[in-house]
């Protein structure tokens, strides 16, 4: 399909600032990352969908990001649109009418947020779209266009608040979700699988299964990710001593914390604090002056980060 620039299921090890020659939609299946769009940070985590438009510079200031898996598609619009637009047009092959394109593009161009909670429909659509693009049957393109249209419309509904995650949960899932909601305020506790399972009133095997469904990772992986998220916020936004941050995030020593933090980000806590306190004037200018990444570069990155579908 000539409209598609890149697609796939990825592990994205780094996201240097860049602009794409098209619209990007990414469903984050697993992970917890900090990306920026036009210099403004947005938290990107498992169960969310992220999008950018051609003129929007996006990326990360971090050397690398925690373990993650993403379902990604990047596709051409009618033009490259190097400067901001209130409305824009999709390729004619997508089959949207002028009125529909105006509704869709206005919602995308006016959105102040680029990362939103994915609905059950979006969680199904993105893997299905990537799977179809990876297939070779004779009606692949027709089916892929149908799925991509559905992804675009569902994204608009999410942005507008017309589509919400109304998925019902079992009793075990509700208990685990309650634990997930409370973990951020109790990361200093010495949580174990046994204590988490006891908190939810279920067995450890069931706890693991439900956590995988709700967060894309195990309980301890999720705890590690939110501890790193809290640590990065404290390092970036406060002058709290590193040893105190370690204790606040549930680590018994500054060395153990430093090793875990470097594993997550590729930098020591002190180096991260120095590097990520904010964009310097020079960095801000660089972000604004970044040129489009070529299609060849984008496809090479897709190949490097691709996770073969099992």
From TrEMBL:
SUPFAM superfamilies: Homeodomain-like, Regulatory protein AraC
Presence of keyword DNA-binding: yes
InterPro entries listed in its UniProt record: Homeodomain-like_sf (IPR009057), HTH-like (IPR037923), HTH_AraC (IPR018060), HTH_AraC-typ_CS (IPR018062), Tscrpt_reg_AraC-type_HTH (IPR020449)
Residues of the HTH araC/xylS-type domain: 177-275
UniProt entry tagged with the keyword DNA-binding: yes
Keyword terms: DNA-binding, Transcription, Transcription regulation
UniProt GO molecular function: DNA-binding transcription factor activity; sequence-specific DNA binding
A Pfam short name: HTH_18
Designated name of the protein: HTH-type transcriptional activator RhaS
Taxonomic lineage of the native organism: Bacteria, Pseudomonadati, Kiritimatiellota, Kiritimatiellia, Kiritimatiellales
Name of the gene this protein is made from: rhaS_3
